[in-house]
């Protein structure tokens, strides 16, 4: 079964264009579309997609607010912010809301397909520009709950941009177990996304700036 995608953008021509080139990849399946944040939340509940491609600037409800609701209510659904805006406030807002990735609309088709597959596999990926800005601005959780030694191992590999499958192989545990550890890590750190957990790992010195460079697609 292909990776199920919900496209959210207030411009019909953008949605149509995305649908056309995503349809060329057999591993991807566009299951629905939405024109604003409110509709995106409703459609995400109806369709249970694997990945939401989320525009940020939309009427009724913007993409950042919608991302926050989807990540809270449907934690298994990953969100990639796909926008024409490279502003610190937009990048920070999207990632704080729980987006696993942040890509610009001028991203090449092949790169976007790779990013969708990476998000579905639980890989943290950001454009290098977005990663650099986030490193300066991200807030470290205040006195987070203590992670177990296994959770620290999972967090380190997650921060290096590894997929759930690769983390499982490296630690000789199942993908389901990896997902359970990741959920526990996010809960203990009080963050909604793997991206924020990865940035936290850099801040506390668990991985280096050099290693976090692997986070871009």
Q: How would you describe the overall organization of this protein?
A:
The protein has 217 residues and is of the alpha/beta class. The protein has two domains: 3-120, Response regulator (Rossmann fold, 3-Layer(aba) Sandwich); 137-215, Winged helix-like DNA-binding domain superfamily/Winged helix DNA-binding domain (Arc Repressor Mutant, subunit A), CATH 1.10.10. Helix content is 52%, strand content 13%. The protein has helices spanning 12-22, 37-47, 63-73, 88-97, 109-120, 128-137, 149-159, 164-171, 175-189, 194-203, 209-212, and strands at residues 3-8, 28-34, 51-54, 78-83, 101-104, 125-126. It has a six-stranded parallel beta sheet, sandwiched between helices. Helix 7 crosses helix 9 (175-189) and helix 8 (164-171) crosses helix 9 (175-189). The two termini are 23 Å apart. The mean pLDDT is 84.
